[in-house]
Amino acid sequence: MRQSIAIATLLLFAGQAAEAADKVRFQTDWIPSGEHAMYYGGWVKGIYAEEGIDITVTRGYGSGDTVTKLAAGAFEFGVADLGAVLTARARQNVPVKTVATLYTHSPHSLFVLKSSGIKDFKGLEGKKIGITPGNSHKLYFPKVAERAGTDPNKIVWVNMDGAAMAAQLIARNIDAAPFYSIHHYYQNKAAKAAGQEIVVLPFVEAGFAIYAASIITTDKIIAEKPDLVKRFLKANKRAFEWARDNPEEACKAHLQKVPEVKLDDCMGSLKAVATFVFTDHVKKFGWGKYDPERLGFTWSVVASSQDLDAKWDPKQALDVSLVP
Q: DSSP class of residue 315?
């Protein structure tokens, strides 16, 4: 009898705990590759549940799409490039803010073949670079080129489908292709199979250090549910640290939600992401926080590329006061 009462009591408490959990819909910024293993893996691991969050993770279709849907109430939190948040806030006063920075510098880069002899951003005049419509690499590249001493107006941009870009590079139909450097592992696998090798030219090596991926939510949630924001950010910090320290476990958990991703590709991307999140910048300013000087430079680049007011204060698009 006592045992039955004890079991019933435990079940009651478990039910109450489940009811108390906040349901959170979370949209990423792109397809669920290994760069998102900390979210999907943390979901499977139960990290969000331990912070009282009943999470559902959905793939994104670009930062702009995530910002728009979040503002419309389709999700409570999302991942988006800070540049997209700044643009939406400055141009239309969209009620969305970054509540934690993730990538302390951007993974924007050019992929080139080692056999091409291209080693940096100098002397790219006349070279063919693949591009997709609206690709932020093209918006940012003039600043990178200028810093490297290359005339950006003499680059030959070749429009193509993003899915064909790596193949066109490997076939030597273009000289360079714009990719996030975190995608190097699996693209280079294809290059090696064709007897080639891909070399990464990160924009940051030209002094182009701007913020990229960030956690976002709405003004309303920040104002009405600050405790939820705190717990969600705490869960994300824990998920990132767990995935960094246990990449194989994180990727195996990720594959439970996204089985089409290969384990080695997941681990390659996940390890690359860690180099953008766990940096000297984080040691100095803290996880999720920002450096006002780097934020200012990020806005100057975004404002210039999007024809926005350079004097607008970018801090209007961030609130990192709830970062754990």
A: G
Q: Which helix (H) or strand (E) holds 200?
A: strand 198-202
Lowest average pLDDT, out of 72-81, 153-162, 293-302, goes to 153-162
Q: Which domains does the chain have, with CATH numbers?
A: 2-104+210-317 (3.40.190.10), 108-206 (3.40.190.10)
**Rounded Cα–Cα distance for residues 191 and 211 (Å):** 29
Q: Helix (H, G, I), strand (E, B), or coil: what is residue 217? A: strand
Round the average pLDDT of the chain to a whole number and report it.
91
Pairing of strands 198-202, 53-58: unpaired
H or E element that contains 269: helix 263-277
Q: Which alpha helices (DSSP H) does 102-225 contain, by range?
A: 136-148, 165-170, 184-193, 219-224
What 8-state DSSP symbol labels residue 95? S
- pLDDT for the residue 287: 97
Fill in the DSSP letter of residue 314.
G
CA distance 27 to 253: 18
- 54 pairs with which residues across the strands? 23
Q: Are 229 and 99 in contact (CB under 8 A)?
A: yes
142 Cβ contact list (under 8 Å, min separation 6): 152, 305
Work out the angle between the directed axes of helices 184-193 and 263-277 (0-180°, nearest 10).
Answer: 130
Tell me which residue of 61, 92, 51 sits closest to 232, measured CA to CA.
51
Spatial neighbors of 23 by CB under 8 A, at least 6 apart, are: 54, 56
pLDDT at 5 over 80: no
Query: Who contacts 228 (Cβ-Cβ below 8 Å, separation ≥6)?
Result: 22, 24, 53, 76, 221
Q: What is the pLDDT of residues 43-78, one digit of tens each?
A: 999 999 999 999 999 998 888 889 999 999 999 999
